[in-house]
Design a protein that fits this description.
The structure holds two protein chains of two kinds. Chain A is of the alpha+beta class. Chain A is built from five helices and four strands; from the N terminus they run E-H-E-E-H-E-H-H-H. A four-stranded parallel sheet of chain B has the order 2-1-3-4, with helices on both faces. Classes of the chains: A alpha+beta, B alpha/beta.
Amino acid sequence: MTEIKKEEITKYIVISSEKVLPADAAMKIYESEFPVKVKETCFGLIVTGLKEDVIAVVEKIRQLDKNHIFIKDRGFPAGDERRCRASRGGGPRPGFHFLREEVEMLPAIGAALDELEAKESVKKKQKEKSRIKVSELEKIIEAELSR
Amino acid sequence: MSKVFIYPINSLILSDLVERFGHKPLSMMNQVREKVTSISLDSPPINITSEDPKVGLKYAAIEVPAGVRGRMALIGPLIEETEAAIIVENPPANFGCVGCNRTNELMKYLVRSKNVPVLEVKYPESYEEAQDFVNKIAEFLNSLPKENSEEEKAKEEKTAEQEDKK
């Protein structure tokens, strides 16, 4: 019988946080004991492994500072010879320039996400305030009538 | 969950935002992964075979440069799956693998002519613009249906059955 290889995926974790460093995130992954391959880079981490494991790990890392940690898929596995600078004789790897441009914009995007979250929580609170139970309303009416 | 096409097709910010708001980004990275990590490498190192330009021919004529057809062989199938799209105008660095302007024009044209909801925004250059950018994208993504379509549900059920059999 032929053995079916389980799907392996790779994700970039790009960290633009004041609280979390790539090294902290890497330590968190080592602690979690998921069987994934981690590569630390200047902008964050590259994680390769089975789909379920990578998704679980990435979500765990995102929760460290969810509005300032960004995630995207990567086609090539971490350390792949076809892309790795070590085997290509140095220089930025293909695709790095656009990532670098986007990384410069991440603090602003993170701040915008913070603001959006704050607005949503205010909206929720306002909604909660506006709800009055029927029993409470009855009490208020009775109190008013008994005056 | 809607399948959202993003332009630039390899954007970190867009693919993260789409995933953050509960949808599936249709990005180039997944297409590349299927090519370079499949078990049988027909044409090393990156597995581009003579079949790929044929796929590209569906979207661009034979007299169009081979690069456009090659790119469309990867991007075209994504456009067919598209249920919504976010197009960012003036992205900062449009060079390298995604720097082919003709492909980008064709890609945007095909998406716009597909009659799916499309959000067009400008790439932010300041904190204020970033807020506007994120708010618009959040509003757009929240307006899309969150539940899986019937086809997807059927697919999921099939894969679950296959896993049970194993």
